[in-house]
Every structure is written in structure tokens, then in C-alpha cells.
Specification:
The protein is mainly α. It has helices spanning 2-20, 34-45, 53-84, 104-112, 114-155, 160-163, 168-184, 194-222, 237-253, 258-265, 274-304, 322-355, 376-398, 402-429, 437-469, and strands spanning 88-90, 98-100, 361-366, 370-375.
Length: 470
Amino acid sequence: MGEEEGDRRREALLEKLSESSYSPSDQVQRTGTVWTAMAHIITAVIGSGVLSLAWSVAQLGWVGGPAAIVFFAGVTVVQSSLLADCYISRDEDGHGVVVRNKSYVQAVRLYLGEKSRLFCGFFLSISLFGSSVVYSLTSATSMRAIQKANCYHTKGHGAPACSAAGGGSDVYYMVLFGLAQVVLSQIPDFHNMAWLSIFAAVMSFSYSFIGFGLGAAKVIENGVIKGAVGGIALASPTQKVWRVAQALGDIAFAYPYSLVLLEIEDTLRSPPAESETMKKASRASIAVTTFFYLGCGCFGYAAFGDATPGNLLTGFGFYEPYWLIDLANLCVVLHLLGGYQVYSQPAFALAERRFGAEASSVDLEIPLLGRRRVNMFRAFRLCYRTAYVAAATAVAVWFPYFNQVVGLIGAFSFWPLAIHFPVEMYIVQAQVAPWTARWLAIQAFNAACLLICAFASVGSAVGVFGSKES
């Protein structure tokens, strides 16, 4: 009986392997290292979120702000370690049947079943698409800030003509960014975009250093550290509660990269084991990221106090040197070109596995070109990815609320995608027995994050709809 049960388990595992793979695993050359993984992670993590951290620290104050940044860094270290162990799955009897979970959805289906996969796919699709929208918004804000910085330098810091720039220019910049993404979206997959992530990571370091330095210089110029232990005082306790909740949502969104962790891990060569390399890259990347987050967030709050802008680089607390402001915003835009792709590639792969896997080449009559052999998979990829970028750009044009969108997306997707599914998959993968000390610790971690994220979701929703009505 035991042998028959083992055979059934192996057959089920092999069936899931055949269904989950749309390209043969043995044809993929994995050459990634801890350095390329760090480049992917930093590109995914340091992005639109870092621009709102000074504002978040201002809402939480000198105690709550840094504590929240460090707390979510710790949460990210834990959840990324749990998820990294779920990349490789072996049959329970040790007969060598191995499944590489090359995407988040595949891992959820393998460990938790089809119903969980559908539930996860809903949250994943919203979060990935929402990230593309936020990147489009941030890029337009930064490009417009370059124009405004030059205007302020020429006409004076209080020039009405500079501050009264119309919203039409934002649309223009979003369309430009979208056109660039149409081209970059034709990169086949994660295995072919290490160069883009390395370039984007260098850009993220550049503007983070500039933001860090400008904040420190402003504090020295002021001769005093602004801010308060409890953060910005508001007219009513209710307003303060909603602001704190929104700030927590901003910080929550600024860290996790669980949506793309398994795709990054799938690029790594072995030995050493992919999970070990991924954990090492995660710890190093989170440490570097936390350093910059604390630097930009705390120096920004120390420099401006209650007047801390929602976007540190585009809120024009800094006017001079204008060329350095321009350079920082240019680095933001160049970084976002790569960051957009890091979060879009899983969405592309999800659709292509489902709808494009069986496509083949066919002969078609093309006007002006005659009869040509067309690769239908490539045609599907071109059309789908172009439509995806166009849709994200259109939503960004319609809903231009930066801080609130960041908080809402982060709070809405943080718990199910970054905490709940990784925890449940790890329990299955590691065969953690219920009601043991280890199981209780993991479930306590899960429940605590749920409460925090529920609180942040409500506050972020109030911020979004309040801005929409105003």
C-alpha cells in the first residue's frame, strides 16, 4: 500500500510539472549569480516607494518612522527566506522527482492547489498591473520636475508660470514613457534582462545618494534637526490615524518583491543551491535598501519637518543646484525603465504560458509583403505586451494620485502575496506539523502582518478617495 501511495504521489508531481512548464527546463541556461540577483532585487525594490518615505516618516515621527522601516525590512527578510525555499519541490519519498517553480503562481498551484492558484492569480494580476501604473505616474512626475526645476532656475523660485504647469504635460510624459516600455517589453524574459537590471540598479544608487546628500546638506544649512517624536500634528485624532495608516502602506509597498522572487531565483546557476544564493542576495539587498531608506526618509524629515513633501525629489524643497535636481530625476526615470520590466515580465509570462504556449508558425498572406511565414507566438507576444503597456499608461493618465496609489496598492497586496501564500507554501514544503512551536511562531507572524495591513488598507483607501473627491 505504501509503495502504491508513493507511486500516486510521484505521478501527481510529474503531472503538475508537465502542466506548469511551457518551455523545457533543460533548454534554459541559468547563469545568474548573487550579483545579478542583487541587481534584480534592488531594481524591483528601490523605486517609486523611496520617493514617499520622507513623507511617511513625517507622519509617523522620529520613533515610529525609523521603527516602521526597520520592521518591514525584517518582515521582508523572513518572507523572502520562506519563499526562496519553495523554488525546488521534490517528491516526499526522495525518488528524485524535481519541480522548478519558475513563477509565483506555479508555486502556489503546486503546494496549495487550484483554488488557491485562482485566488493568488487575482491578487497577483492587480498588484503587477498596479505597479506598472505607479511606475508610469512616477516617471511622468520626475520628467515634469526636470522642466519645472529649469523654469524655477530661470524665472525664480516663486514664479507662478512654473508652478502652474498644466496636467497635459504629464500626459505627454506618460505617453513617452509608455512608448519606451513598448520597446523594452519585447525582451523575452528574465534570463535576458540582467543588463537592464544592472543599469537600473546603478541609476537607483545614483538618485538615492543624491537624495541622501541633499537632505544632509539641508540639515547642515538649517543648523537644526526639524521634526517631532510624534510626527506632524493634525487638526483631529481621526485625521492623524488615517495619515499613520497611509504612511504604513507606503512603507509596506517600498519593500517586498515576492511577486518576482521566484522568477529571479530561476535565473540562478547551481551549485550552490539556488535557495542559498537567493537568501544571500536577499539579505544583502535588503540591508543596502534599508540604509538608503533610512537615509532618505530621516534626512528628508530632518530637513523639512512638517513641510516634508510627498515626493522628496519633485516636491521642490530643493531648488538648487538645479542641475543636480535634474540629474537625480533623470536617474529616477532611467531606473524606472528597468523597474517597470521587472514587474511586467511575470505578467507577460503568465499570459504567454496560458494562451501562447501552443502557438506555431503559419503561412499568411500579408498586404504589400506577399506570403510570409509568421511565428504566431512572437506575434501574440508583440500584440499582448503592447496592449498591456497601453492599458497601464491609460490608467495612469486617468488616476494621477501618487502617494495614495502607492499606499493603496502596497496595503492591498502586501499580506496575501508577501505573507500569507509564502507562509502556507513553506508549511507544506517543509512539512511543519500543526501546533508545534515552529508552526505557532509562523502563524503568529502571519496574523500580526494581517492586522497591520488591514489597518494600512483602510487608511490608504481614505487617502485615495479623499484626493479623488477633492
